[in-house]
Amino acid sequence: MLNDPIPSIRLAIGGLAHDTWDGWSIESDLLTPADAFELELHTKRGARLPEVIKEGAPCSLTLDGDLVLTGQVDEFEHDISRQGISMRINGRDRAAPLVDCSAPFVSMREASLKEIIDQVVTPWGLQGGDPRRRSQDPAPYPDRARANCLGGTAPGRRGKRLVAMD
């Protein structure tokens, strides 16, 4: 709708945070193995890029003040020219190592989310906690418990289409 407010997207990395983006996309769904984000920014200011923005850096992403993802930066691209700085940051949540490293096949029937986490996540050295918890602290996996409340399809929760940078 035309009168829907523009959602606030905030990325925090290494004690720094930014919440003004030219384009963004968040893929968050219980059927998505690792929730993902892509953020794009163009600025004419010739400021130096913070050193904490690098591939592999731990990060958290909030949407309108709600924590939706805790994970890492997968890819950081930037271009510095006379016109300014263009950057694109891609990342995924803490489930990404499970996807990248091919978690072993586990067969279960009528298992709870906690039982699935115990069987699939715990062997990788990651701590699961209660998947129904809704606190705002950056403990492991709060984003998975909230995934279906965002789902990437709620009205007014979509970002602009991202355009490839030259």
What is shown here, in short?
The chain has 166 residues and is α+β, with helices and mostly antiparallel strands. It contains three helices and seven strands, in the order E-E-E-E-E-E-E-H-H-H. Strands 2-1-5-6-7-4-3 form a seven-stranded antiparallel sheet.
Rg value: 17 Å
- Largest sheet properties: 7 strands, antiparallel
Name the helix and strand elements from N-terminus to C-terminus, one letter apiece: EEEEEEEHHH
Average pLDDT metric:
74
Helix content: 10-25%
Low-confidence stretches: 134-166
Count the DSSP helices: 3
Q: Beta-strand level of the residues, as a percent range?
A: 25-35%
Q: Which structural class matches the secondary elements?
A: alpha+beta
Number of strand segments: 7
Give the distance, in angstroms, between the N- and C-terminal Cα atoms. 31 Å
Approximate shape = elongated
Strand order of the largest sheet: 2-1-5-6-7-4-3
Q: What topology emerges from the helices and strands here?
A:
Blueprint: E1 9-13, E2 16-18, E3 23-27, E4 36-43, E5 58-63, E6 66-81, E7 84-93, H1 96-100, H2 113-120, H3 142-150
Question: What does this entry look like structurally?
Answer:
With 166 residues, the chain is of the alpha+beta class. 13% of the residues lie in helices and 32% in strands. The chain has 3 helices and 7 strands, in the order βββββββααα. Strands 2-1-5-6-7-4-3 form a 7-stranded antiparallel β-sheet. The two termini are 31 Å apart. The C terminus is likely disordered.
